[in-house]
Amino acid sequence: MGNWACIIIDVRKLNSFSSQGVTYMQSIADFIDLDRYPLNKLDSPSGRTLVEDCQQMMREHAICALKGFLRPASVRALSNEVASLEDAMRRVDFLATPYGWLKNSDFAEDHPRSRLFNRRCGVLTADQLNPKGLCTQLFQFSELTEFVRRLLGYESLFNSACPNISVRLNIMQQGDEFGWHYDTNDGAVSLVLQDAQEGGAFEYAPLIRSEEDEKYDRVSRIFSGRASPVVADAPAGTFILFMGRRSLHRVAPVGKTQKSRQTLLFSYDRKPGMVFPEKIRKRMLEPSPEPFLGQ
Ligand SMILES: O=C(O)CCC(=O)C(=O)O
Ligand SMILES: [Fe+2]
């Protein structure tokens, strides 16, 4: 009953409508604060300034975090949609190498390439979402894809066509964590829908590695706590674009909390039709406790 009451209040504020338990919004303005972040007019002076400021954040800090990107009412409606699907989520719980794209045997025990970290969280994937629901609607706004394309400075950018991992939700409860790792591509987009009451911070070491130099010494210092990562200031409603292929990162363990930490993750590619490799999809669709040791 409580959730229903919330949804109805949201619906009125949002100029949207609800049918069979699904909230429909009408335009990008219902989701995103276009006064602060004019995605609908990127060629205007304020649009150009926004893109330039974001590009500078990416260059200097490997992250572009835009607080208040999602309007408060849309954060609540998105988060309610996720809560209504939580029963269907898959639980992932395995140990994983930070270096998933490499073969990691034959390294000394204390070498970063031998380290394994917990990946323990709930996951919902595109195939489990309502195709007309809010999470999917938000992914499909061409203005958002165009904004991300401009920030990355790519000639072209397309929404991933992966039936599973194009849209993904990480849902983390007390005791969950998403250990240290690199992403296999740069330019991951995440939207923070709900914070945990304790823990669950997004932590990262900006641009620590390059294709030429893995900087294992610095990575070891982060792993052992001798060096501190940067902690993202990203409350619910924040848009994050992150250079995760070069920047070591994790979601720190979630502490005592009544509510889950929820993030909505969107995937893009320079070419149309991108589908994630079978191995990666299987990891999420058929969770197993087998450690992930890399290629
Ligand atoms: O949930 C998040 O904030 C990000 C998790 C992450 O790093 C990933 O899914 O690769
Ligand atoms: Fe990541």
Largest sheet: 11 strands, antiparallel
Shape: globular
Beta strands, count: 15
What is the total domain count? 1
From the alpha-carbon coordinates, what is the Rg to the nearest angstrom?
Answer: 19 Å
Order of helices and strands: HEEHHEHEEHHEEEEEHEEEEEH
Query: Which spans have pLDDT < 50 for at least 5 consecutive residues?
Result: 1-14
Name given to the CATH homologous superfamily: q2cbj1_9rhob like domain
Return the average pLDDT rounded to an integer. 92
Strand content: 15-25%
Classify the secondary structure makeup into a structural class: alpha+beta
CATH topology name: Jelly Rolls
What count of helical segments does DSSP give? 8
Query: In CATH terms, what is the architecture?
Result: Sandwich
- Ends distance: 48 Å
Bound molecules: 2-oxoglutaric acid, fe (ii) ion
CATH classification class: Mainly Beta
Helix content: 25-40%
